[in-house]
Amino acid sequence: MKSRALWTIYWLVVAATFAGAIVLVFNYTPNESTMGLIQKVFYFHLPIAICTFLCCFCNFVGSIGYLINRKRKWDDFAAAGAAVSVLLCTGVLLTGMLWARGAWGVWWTWSPRLTFSFMLWLLYVVYVLVRASIESSQKRAIVGAVYGLVAFLDVPLVYLSARLLPDIHPASIGLAPSMKLTLGLCFIPIVLATIGLVYANFRVNVARRQLAEANEQLNLQTETAAGGAL
Amino acid sequence: MTGTLSQIFTLTAKDLRIEGRTRQSLALVLVLGVLVISVLGLGLGSQPAIATMGTPAILWVAYLFSGVLCFEKTMAIERHDGALAGLLLAPIDRGVIFASKLISNLILMLGVATVITFVGILFFNFDLSPAPGGFVLIIVISMIGFAAVGTLFAAMVSSTRLQGGMLAMVLFPIILPLVIASTQQMTAMFRDGVAPGGAGLAILGAFDAVFVVVSWLVFELVLEP
Description:
The complex is a heterodimer of chains A (230) and B (225).
Chain A: H1 2-28, H2 42-69, H3 72-104, H4 112-132, H5 137-162, H6 177-229
Helix pairs in contact in A: 1-6, 2-3, 2-5, 2-6, 3-4, 3-5, 3-6, 4-5
Chain B: H1 2-22, H2 24-44, H3 48-76, H4 83-89, H5 94-124, H6 132-159, H7 166-190, H8 198-222
Helix pairs in contact in B: 1-5, 2-3, 2-5, 3-5, 3-6, 3-7, 5-6, 5-8, 6-7, 6-8, 7-8
């Protein structure tokens, strides 16, 4: 009960900081001189992108952990990281596309960073889909761990290879002090939400696995009991 | 050391001998590659713009699909008559099994790539003369990384008895850096006349190094009879 109250408070804090961030973005921060209103998407775009990497790293840690000591909890953690990273990466792509439409007039172009985000998204969507298509939980864990390890090592190579493509992305943006402050404060709700989502997902995975194991145990017991009766 | 090398040699020779006698996988893989090229050829026609810019990409699509089939087939050999169980019981390091599978896959894929490339050149009037050496270099380096990841995932898909199509699904997103780096290098070589090198070649080399080592280390974890 107590943990449930804490959990509710946690998400209320996330919601409050998020609301605060939105107010700051629209009321406190000035409009960017060339891109105008659409640049505001940047305050969420960058923190989400960074949190995506954090989730990919969680997946990597979980995968390595499972390969080393074969404890299912590591696998549950890896799966949680991948699921949240897909969600966040979708957010990066959507905010990025909005921004691209506003700034360059097109929804999509094969510029390095867009390509990179898209390839990152593909990598982890495949992780989630492949896991979902394996029935045996032990096989799912080992396939997930191997793929997760290879996928994370692939990320820097994907990034470097995408940089070979011709670029129109801003290399670095000069930000006014008020913009920097807003950007920094926008990190708070997004990082908190990411941690909360990974944790919630992890707990669900653990509970789901324990339920499946308990079911198996029960089936086994009924079978032996039936065998004894005969 | 010589023991390990001779083990690798024996296992590779075994794979290639089986292939030489049955000629099952190679024929299938080659026909698939040629089919992919002809489908794209029929769809795109042979406009001059495609010849220089598009051919590397078209060739890559054919390499990718034939590669998936090839890796699946070489691993499927071990499924017959409990061959894999025998191999795992043999007093050899699992890394040796990986190395031999990698080498036989690489040899087969280089053969397949040669045929597919010739067909591609023929169908699309692709002019290889500006940089034939560079082309071969890029393809050989790319194939090493492709075969390394392919060998690992083929073993994984085969050991866990995943349904068909999964190998392509897990392999393609991982292999994308190779595709980008090598097609960019080809564009630079054939359109701009730049010699291969720089960041593109470094990425291809890094991909090979990282994934040959990682696949070799992880291979024994996924191998199950």
